[in-house]
């Protein structure tokens, strides 16, 4: 069936993130309506809404929602010199084709980890609406994140350039990310929520690559997903205050404390308290790196009575983010 379908071929050279930013800026169809890092493209074969963010040095995010206007086959070319790696979370209203080699894998939702040498094809049928979250890492950043000194392509822990089904938790976080990008950009907690979600996606991808498959098959019911989304939004909305407490959080979500603890950790990979502290520390990292505030001022803004308590959490979470894979490997 695929061989008989007529496809519009589009060759795409993979480039450094800054080049993407320049392209979107030049070709945006409604430049008067967009803000920095938010673009609309209306091209011959596709229309797109695109979000671009630099998370930190060596780590970028590109999130796209696109609608295919015709049957399109994208050819992605290698970019060896850039030494960039990416995790790509792809979900569509119809099945999406991914080809690496001879076979085409058709699925509604896929996640793929690409190295700089990757050459692959994506097939989109006309009318397909696709969400794609692309997390891009430099070689140095991915090494520090995984705790590996050798080239990431030499490890057997991560399946390179091979598509797998997206886990429920990853879909959940991807949808949360698009809600943050679209509806919370002007809110004071935007940056912290963004950091927390993209690191959550990174965490779940690494977990899916390093632990048994059944750990990732957390098949939540819709009401469970809603409760976890509500819990995350409550924590994000109150990140400049003290932790609301596990009993109040469970009550506000209309679930038991034990179910909240279990489902929250299955969904986000960490406890509600650690999720809350991650949001606070990510806010602190952005503020401090921009030299906007002192440590004491940041601690006060976040509701810490003592700056030493804040500093302890900062060190703990910062070390966790840099050595996240080692933690999971130790639990295997």
Notes on the protein architecture:
It is globular, with a radius of gyration of 20 Å. Helix 4 (190-210) packs across helix 8 (272-289), helix 5 crosses helix 7 and helix 5 crosses helix 8 (272-289). With 332 residues, the protein is of the alpha+beta class. Strands 1, 2, 3, 4, 5, 6, 7, 8, 9 and 10 form a ten-stranded mixed beta sheet that branches. The protein has two domains: 8-166, Sandwich (Jelly Rolls); 206-330, Arc Repressor Mutant, subunit A. It has helices at 17-27, 139-146, 168-183, 190-210, 222-237, 246-252, 257-268, 272-289, 295-301, 307-322, 324-330, and strands at residues 8-13, 38-42, 46-56, 59-68, 72-77, 84-99, 104-114, 120-124, 129-138, 164-165.
CATH architecture of the largest domain: Sandwich
The share of residues in extended strands comes to 15-25%
Radius of gyration: 20 Å
Detail the poorly predicted runs: 210-222, 320-332
The number of distinct helices, counting runs of at least 4 residues, comes to 11
Please estimate the helix content.
40-55%
Query: H/E element string?
Result: EHEEEEEEEEHEHHHHHHHHH
Name of the CATH homologous superfamily of the largest domain: Jelly Rolls
Give the averaged pLDDT, no decimals.
75
CATH topology-level name of the largest domain? Jelly Rolls
Q: Gap between N and C termini, in Å?
A: 43 Å
Number of strands: 10
Write the layout of secondary structure elements.
Elements: E1 8-13, H1 17-27, E2 38-42, E3 46-56, E4 59-68, E5 72-77, E6 84-99, E7 104-114, E8 120-124, E9 129-138, H2 139-146, E10 164-165, H3 168-183, H4 190-210, H5 222-237, H6 246-252, H7 257-268, H8 272-289, H9 295-301, H10 307-322, H11 324-330
Parallel strand pairs: 1-5
Antiparallel strand pairs: 2-3, 3-4, 4-9, 5-8, 6-7, 6-8, 6-9, 7-10
Helix pairs in contact: 3-4, 4-8, 4-11, 5-7, 5-8, 6-7, 8-10
